[in-house]
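Example with several molecule types.
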Amino acid sequence: MAEIVLETKDLGISFGGLKAVQNVNLKIEKNQLYGLIGPNGAGKTTVFNMLTGVYKPTTGTFYLCGEELKGKSQEAINHKGIARTFQNIRLFNNMSVIRNVLVGLHNQPEFKCSPVTSMLKLPKHYDTEVRMRERAKEILKIFDLYEERNNLACNLPYGKQRKLEIARALATNPKLLLLDEPAAGMNPNETEELMKTVRFIRDEFDITVLLIEHDLKFVSGLCDEVTVLNFGTALYQGKVNDALNDPEVVKAYIGG
Amino acid sequence: MNLIKNIKANTKPKYFTNYIIVAVMLAVTLTMKMTGNLARSNATLLAQISYSIILAVSLNLVVGFLGELSLGHAGFMCVGAYLGCFVANMLHEFISSPLLVLIISMVVGGVVAAVFGFIIGLPALRLKGDYLAIVTLAFGEIVRTIFKNLKAFGGALGLDSTRYKGNLFVVGFVVVLVTLFIIQNIVRSKHGRAITAIRDNEIAARAMGINVTYYKLFVFVVAAFFAGVAGVIYGHFATPVLYSFFSYNYSIEILVMVVLGGMGNITGSIIAATAITFINFQLQTRLSGDLAALKFLVYALILIVVVIFNNAPALSAVREKFSIRRFLKSKRHPSEVHDDEAAWDRVPTKIRMDEVLSVDVIVDDPYTPDKKDPTTKGGSN
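Resulting structure tokens for the full complex:
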């Protein structure tokens, strides 16, 4: 059996009296493409926010490769290997494209360089900067953003901004990548391309992907397994094709 | 050699602009001094300019690069001035060289101010925007009130400091060069990128694993250190060091230098600090008697004209015509930026300056919707 990358046990959170998410149990194997779907307001992004430390779960816990990460700060969770993108794109808009990726590389152990070293411009500072830039350029080439590297991030077209966000997240060298509605606002061609990209990064970077998406065609074409959330609880877990035929899931989506 | 190659790859000619500006200023004035063409009052003006530049550049690190509003910069300067001059007074008995005393007292003043920066930073950095501004404002007022009431520091009469015997402005400009070296190096390193990332999007910066608290504290400590050093320079020509100088108004004046020069623009800070200090000095010396009241009017008018010229959309064509970039015949496409550029004149700023600078005009607008609940900031479904 493959290695379990992410495991959540009875994960749940309530805001005051509102139980936003309850009893979510996920088990994601290494190199899996796992989908998290459900109608609006089902609590999908809240699950992401718990997994990245924005919210502290009120019940249950979660493990990354066997290590409990509940209660850690966002920074610490990122260092442990969970990176994410955002539903509403959050790039560093006033920075160039390459700088966005360089910020992602900031915490990598091979690019360690103390503030004092940088303040005095010791040789190590130059060495680190050059190596960071080379790495950033490699990543940008993979995502076909190399030509635009000196443009402001906010001047990129929408599809490229999404790509850049993924590139930046991958720069932090994660074990698990969380994609929050990566295909939102994309036309069918772009969606098709994005599917290829996600598969490609899974193989190239040897990572596991958990994604939220409303485009069911995208999910069924990409993911092997899904969890369907509705009103904060898991309605269905299992193979993606069966999910779409499940009467409960259909009811949640269409009503009736 | 590898190092030289690395340095070449990471250095651009414009990195030296600011050093050259300051070095030329120093060289010209020093020549004037040597040939006896520099009036005594102008030497004082130059010393004022030197500490103004240090203050403006260090505040720019907080306001322009980190994007947090600090209204307590004069407070850190106050701590540095009092402590530094206190130490200097003691040292004069043991050390005969005034330069050595000045250097030691600058280090002491800077370090003590940095400690205060750390102490004020710890609770203050849990706050955001306006709230942080209020806390730093309160800090500045508290500090000077404390010094006003401490007998050991001269109380309400101020601390008697010893005037520096040599050319203070020369030391001042050398310290400016050191300040520029350190602050520009921070800004142009991975740490500067992290700091500007926090300014641009704090949530995303956290998600990228940037330790936001660490960097905010770091910036506060560095800025406070240089404010303290500037205070010691001030204390060595203004005697006595008086608490009333370090008021809220002075903090705002430093902020005006930063805003006028452009946030995140160090060259701009240097030019604005020089210009404002110069204008202030001239108005103070030229307008005497009944005309003295006009000083604030003229000063305010100049500020208004400059701000309008810099920001009015209708004047963009005029600005373009006189821009330095055009003068240097830059071939760069307008959408391109160098990856070390951090000026944020391209977007609306996170801090709305008009709100800050008109603190006494509080308009209660019932139609403004409530701020979003902070717990929902992580994005919703």
